[in-house]
Amino acid sequence: MRLPEFHQVRKVRAGAPAISDVAAAVRAALAPLLAAGELRGARVAVTCGSRGIDRIAEAARGACQALSQAGAQPFVVAAMGSHGNATAEGQRRVLADYGITEAGVGVPVVSCMDAVRLGPSPRGVEVFMDRGAFETGRIVLLNRVKPHTTFDGDIESGLMKMMAVGLGKLEGARSFHGNAMRAGFTETIVEMARVSLATGRVWAGVGLVENDEHELAEVAAAPAAGIEELDRLLLLRARRMYSRLPFSELDLLIVDEIGKNIAGTGMDPKVIGRAPQPDTPLRLEGITRIRRIYARDLTDESKGNANGMGLADVIHKRLFEKIDFAASYTNGRTALNFHTLRMPMHFDSDETALEFLLGNLGSPEPEELRAARIRNTLAMSEFLASPAAVRQLAGNDRYEIGPAQPLRFD
Fold it and tell me: Which residue spans within 121-269 are E strands per DSSP?
């Protein structure tokens, strides 16, 4: 096996500056909405989901501080569908992994799987809401707004989806995915979220936007009536800052780890250019075309949920041995998604895996192989790239290229 040497590549300039004090930014965003004192004495549920959002515990603490200062009694509610193996304790552990505990955010953290049926939408889609949040009667949505990993639209992953799926718990997630496969993802999100808004339980939404370094760069809030418009606006901004590989084409991408804390599909399809649903193509401009993908490990935070392994061509044995098929298939059944849970070939070592992949690529000469190695699809500010890949960075002043060194197998 003849491998090229790899350059250390480092991003030296982000697309937008990061917020230095996230909690303060959230308090400032909510301040105009709280000024009238409408929530004084009221219990308020603040949503937190399962995505690995930058400094999410700080954002949750800021929201709860703003509410407490306004005389409300906030608590955090676990707003996720099938994640955490679809159990209350599992979802509590997911939040705890992000530092969202009573000690971390300063308020109680409530997790349950019981949901209230809100009734069907005009098109007959069943909509649900977490019982604790529903009975509280005042909800502040807190979520990141970003391009979704599996579909394109003017509303994707954000505040509206938090209502449709996260607050809907397992029943809401099942209803969403079943109907989205038939009627479209964005259309179903909007339809379900409008039913939730019509209950009057949702009081406001706080949208978080990350830059291309996955650092929170913008926070904005809106009352219930403005949440849909805010979601659309923040998605446009998030698209402009979306993190991606700076290559048009690669023969081989080595991914050190996949996981649910990295993306809902383990690896971000809009980074690797592979659609989780084969009949739903990705249209995000600038996606890298990659011939082969090798995934080396599964994050501990995934708790064995290996959703996304099917997007790789080959995996390492260590990843295979961490798979919890019950957790993985619960996620797959809820999302009606089998493609991302297909089992790739697995190998005992990196050397044998790469030897197989290079042969599968036609044994290219080292100077011709366009290859890169990243930690995961969230951590792409530093990576390794072969000389043939680095040539694609000519004239790109956002990256600094170090000397080339050989890969070493221990």
Answer: 126-130, 139-144, 202-210, 216-223, 249-255
What are 168's two structure tokens?
A: 């809907």
Model pTM score = 0.77
Number of C-alpha atoms within 13 angstroms, CB side, residue 216?
A: 24
- CB-hemisphere CA count at 13 Å for 68? 13
Task: Give the alpha-carbon dihedral of 43, 49, 53, 54, to 10 degrees.
Answer: 30
> CATH: 3.30.70.20, 1.10.10.10, 3.40.50.11440, 2.60.120.510. Which one for 22-240?
3.40.50.11440
Strand partners, 74: 44
- 9: three-class secondary structure by DSSP: strand
**pLDDT tens over the chain, length 410 residues:** 899 999 999 998 877 899 999 999 999 999 999 999 999 999 999 999 988 899 999 999 999 999 999 999 999 999 998 878 889 999 999 999 999 999 999 999 999 999 999 999 999 999 999 999 999 999 999 999 998 877 889 999 999 999 999 999 999 999 998 898 888 899 999 999 999 999 999 999 999 999 988 899 999 999 999 999 999 999 999 988 888 899 999 999 999 999 988 888 999 998 998 988 777 767 666 789 999 999 999 999 999 999 999 999 999 999 999 999 999 998 888 777 788 999 999 999 999 999 999 999 999 999 999 999 999 998 888 999 999 999 999 989 889 999 999 999 98
Residue ranges of domains in the chain: 6-13+244-405, 22-240
Structure tokens that stand for 402 in this block = 């170090």
The two structure tokens encoding residue 367: 């100077």
The DSSP call for residue 288 is P
